[in-house]
Here is the input.
Amino acid sequence: MKITFFTHSTCILEIHEKHLLIDPFFSKNPIFRNIDFLKFTKNLEKIDYILLTHAHYDHVCDVEFFSRKFTNSLVISNYEISNYFDKKGINTYGINYGSFISFPFGKLKYVWAVHSSVFDDGTYGGNPGGFLLHTDEGNLYISGDTSLTYEMNLIPNFGKLGLSILPIGGRYTMDINEAVIASEFLKCEKILGVHYNTFSSIQINKKQAKKIFYEKGKELILLKMGESIDI
Here is the structure.
């Protein structure tokens, strides 16, 4: 399984030659003020699935763009978000908190997140969530935007995690210290940090953040734009 980080919470997972785009946030992203968004995304040759954790613009603003660019792609999200994009003529697959569901890339489960969820136009975005992904290439937890929640203790009951993707910027989500506690709940040693430094309100000290995780016997991975790792 290969994970490429772009910015904020936006990543691409490559599993069994399937490409999964997570929470696309480019066009309205302040980081792209001095970067040609269309030229940057031109290098993306394939998107098979688009996974959305909740309806805030910094996670869904480019769903329509990528759905039109990759016409065979499938949006997977909660029932309300899926219905919202279905009405726009986009291929969707609505799910909710419940069982694992099988896809060509593996098994996917929508799990609890403590946050909010509404589109920019005021449309209710349903319950925010995260994704638990089980594949024969490894297991991955994508928490989405969330506070620290005791529900995370349930996740390792389903299987050992190779990596967890957690927000670390604070204010709207967990901060560094809470993410360390989350990693302990999850029984996960490797954390990919997301949702930080995009805005002035969620700035972190990356060197200090890594040290805090290291002192707890954990590894905090902070990738540069376009950088990839394998798990």
The helical segments are 37-41, 57-60, 63-69, 79-86, 176-186, 206-215. Residues 43 and 131 are 26 Å apart (CA to CA). The chain has one domain: 2-230. The two ends are 6 Å apart (CA to CA).
